[in-house]
Structures are given as structure tokens and as C-alpha cells.
Write a structure and sequence with these properties.
With 397 residues, this protein is of the alpha/beta class. Helix content is 34%, strand content 25%. The chain starts with a strand and ends with a helix. Bound molecules: MU-OXO-diiron.
Length: 397
């Protein structure tokens, strides 16, 4: 029994829910799992758009065959080569050896490193089209959303965009597959922002280039490779990704601290209180040693204000803060109202290296860093007051 879902009369969704994997890319936690989406168009010609992660569904090829009902598979279109989508290529080619693989030049340069099998291939360039009969597909190259070969396929007949990783989300599809069948705000919004910031966030500039390319394209339905299909309100997900890729943040402040014996944590709570007194209503405080960096990145993406604190550790910042700041540098985080703080016992190193991070990341400070020797007694807090007020003022302006 296969639960095949139709996107439209001739287009099928072949989704797999992965609830076993703990870490996406062996890095990012998946408490709500993840879905891999594949799509099959059954027209005069038949075309499979991407596959799924190898082993995530042992019945994947049988599901394709079930829908084809004895017909051959004419095309396998590879929008994205990352193995969470290309994992069943070998199985598909084994089952339908006459299939023609469609990709761009970079697709094939990556494909040859993964699959050595001789197969018919057809290289497309940006804007090329392919008629399947009723459906006419147009290929839109969108490099670095999320790998260099990534492209989207646009069905000009039904105005459906097969968008690869773009507009995707963490989280399995639990019964509801389309945006009008789910409670998106409750179950997917946070996971989508975490997916965007963790997986695609580094390439915001390339996401904006993809938007520019699609500016004059009428899009009725968005079929991503992860998460729900958008057929009722595609503008919602277009707006979210547009905002996140421009790093347009909310009037919120995220305070992340790394503390060994509670002094830096006490400073974090004091600063949070002062930010609240300055009028900010959306404030979150996180312990970098406890909350996985994946969630911290997502929260930092959301908030205009960012206040980082670390104790000194072997003349440097605490390793949990070092991990976070390294990730933030890789992601090219920008446009933050930034404050720094921390404590030390003799020679320091926490705040000193947080300042190095800010310089490396080209993030100006809203105020001088607040650094305290030992306990944060009340007579040592003037710099915390000034920094909290400066960050709050920048966030609220
Ligand atoms: Fe879902 Fe970049 O792979």
C-alpha cells in the first residue's frame, strides 16, 4: 500500500519522512525529523524530479514504478546533488536503464564523483526548456542555494516551481502535506527558520539573486525538497525566505552566555533586566553550553540585538562560545546591535577574543564591552548598564 499524493492531475508527490536520523548532515538536531520530497510527472513523457536519501525508504523505486504502472521513466531531473536527494539515483538508473539524466554542467561534474554508471545524460543551461507533452519545464540555475550546481525546475504549464532546498524546512509531514493542511505557525515556522539559517543562511546573497531571476515568474505552487508544499499561500514562504536572506531581523534581543561558575551568567541576567527596562519586550537568554548551536543560530537570525558573553578560558573564550562565534563568522552574520560582556579571574581572554570575533565578522559594537573581574558586584556594573541601553536603543529605533 503506497500513499501517493497528487500535486495536480499529472504530478505526484513522493515523500519520505525520516524520523530515525538524529542529526541532519550529522550536525543539526532533528527533534521533529525531516521529510525528503521527490516528484513524479506522468505526461506523454515521464519525469522524476530528484530522489530521496539512500535507505530512507527501501520502497522508493517501487513507489515510482507503482505510479508509472508499467511505463518507462524517461527523465530523471536532478535539481540538487546533495545525497539527501540524490541517494536513490543508482537504484532508479538500475530499474530504468534507459532513463536520461537531466542536469547542468556542474550537476554532472559532481555526479561523476558519486556514480560511475554509463547513463544517457542531457545537459541544460539556464532558461532551457523541455516539453513532456502537456507540461513544459523550464530550468532555472540557482547556484549556491545550496550547492554550486543547484537549480530549480519551473513548470510553465501549471506555474509550479520545484525549488530544490529553497523554501524547505525541517520537520516531517505528519499527514498534512500542503500548506492549507497544516498548522504552519505552530509546527513548522521555528523549524523552517532553523533550517534556513543553518543550511542556506550562508548563501543569502545567492538567494536574493534567485529571487531577482524569478521576479517576473508567476508562481502558483512551490514544491521544495523538504517540508510542506505551498499551493494556497506561496507568497508566505516567499516573504519569509526573502526576509531571512536579507537578514532583516525582529525587534528582539538574544543574549548568549558561556559561564563556568556563574559570574558571567549573573551578568547575562542583569543585562537582560536592563534591556527590558529599556523597553525591549522580546528577550531570550541562552546558555551556550546547554543549547545546541543550531538553535542559537536560528534565534540570532531572528533578533536584531545580539549580546554575547564569555568567561575567560585558558586565555581565550569558553569553547562553547568559540564554537558559536566560529559558526557566526562562517555564516556572515550582519546588521546586529552587538554587545559583549564577560568575566575573568586574572589575565582575561573571554572578552578580548569576543572583540576579535566582532572585528573579524565586521560587526560594530553598540557600546564598549562590559568586563568584570570576579563577582559582578553592584559597583562594577556601569558598563553593563551602558551596553544594555545602547543595544536596546539600536533595536527599538
Ligand atoms: Fe536538502 Fe542541500 O540538501
Amino acid at each position: 500500500m503506497f500513499t501517493n499524493v497528487k500535486v495536480s492531475d499529472k504530478i505526484y508527490h513522493l515523500g519520505v519522512n525520516d524520523r530515525r536520523k538524529h542529526l541532519f548532515e550529522n550536525l543539526w538536531p532533528l527533534p521533529n525529523g525531516v521529510a525528503y520530497n521527490s516528484y513524479l510527472i506522468v505526461d506523454d513523457k515521464t519525469a522524476l524530479l530528484d530522489t530521496v536519501e539512500s535507505g530512507s525508504d527501501r520502497r522508493f523505486v517501487e513507489r515510482v514504478a507503482d505510479i508509472l504502472a508499467g511505463r518507462d521513466l524517461d527523465y530523471l531531473i536532478i535539481n540538487h546533488m546533495e545525497p539527501d536527494h540524490s541517494g536513490e539515483i543508482d537504484a532508479v538508473v538500475s530499474r530504468w536503464p534507459g532513463v536520461t539524466i537531466i542536469g547542468n554542467a556542474k550537476t554532472f561534474s559532481i555526479l561523476k564523483h558519486y556514480y560511475s554508471r554509463e547513463t544517457e545524460s542531457y545537459e541544460v543551461k539556464d532558461g532551457d526548456t523541455l516539453s513532456l507533452g502537456h507540461h513544459c519545464l523550464k530550468f532555472v540555475l540557482t547556484p549556491w542555494v545550496h550547492w554550486p550546481e543547484t537549480m530549480m525546475t519551473y513548470d510553465t504549464t501549471e506555474k509550479i516551481l520545484f525549488s530544490a532546498d529553497a523554501f524547505g524546512s525541517f520537520g516531517t509531514l505528519d499527514g498534512g502535506i500542503f500548506d492549507d493542511e497544516i498548522d504552519f505557525d505552530r509546527y513548522y515556522l521555528d523549524d523552517m527558520r532553523r533550517y534556513y539559517s543553518n543550511i542556506v543562511g550562508k548563501y543569502g546573497g545567492m538567494v536574493q539573486k534567485a529571487y531577482a531571476k524569478l521576479a517576473d515568474t508567476e508562481i502558483k505552487t512551490i514544491c521544495p525538497l523538504h517540508g510542506p508544499i505551498w499551493r494556497t499561500d506561496p507568497c508566505r514562504v516567499l516573504a519569509l525566505y526573502d526576509r531571512w536572506s536579507r537578514q532583516e531581523a525582529e525587534k528582539a534581543v538574544v543574549i548568549v552566555f558561556a559561564s563556568m561558575y556563574g559570574n558571567t551568567e549573573a551578568m547575562a541576567d542583569y543585562i537582560a533586566r536592563r534591556v527590558s527596562e529599556a523597553g525591549v519586550r522580546d528577550i531570550r537568554v541562552y546558555d551556550a553550553s546547554k543549547t545546541h548551536v543550531s538553535y542559537l543560530i536560528s534565534e540570532i537570525w531572528r533578533a536584531k540585538g545580539l549580546i554575547l558573553g564569555s568567561c575567560a578560558y585558558n586565555g581565550y573564550m569558553h569553547p562553547s562560545m568559540e564554537r558559536l562565534t566560529t559558526e557566526l563568522t562562517h555564516y556572515g552574520i550582519k546588521d546586529k546591535a552587538l554587545g559583549l560582556f564577560g568575566s575573568f579571574s586574572w589575565n582575561g581572554g573571554g572578552v578580548r577574543n569576543l572583540k576579535c570575533f566582532a572585528e573579524t565578522a565586521s560587526l560594530p559594537l553598540a557600546a564598549d564591552p562590559a568586563e568584570i573581574a570576579g563577582r559582578p558586584d553592584s559597583d562594577k556594573l556601569a558598563l553593563c548598564d551602558a551596553m544594555a541601553e545602547a543595544v536596546a536603543a539600536e533595536v527599538l529605533k
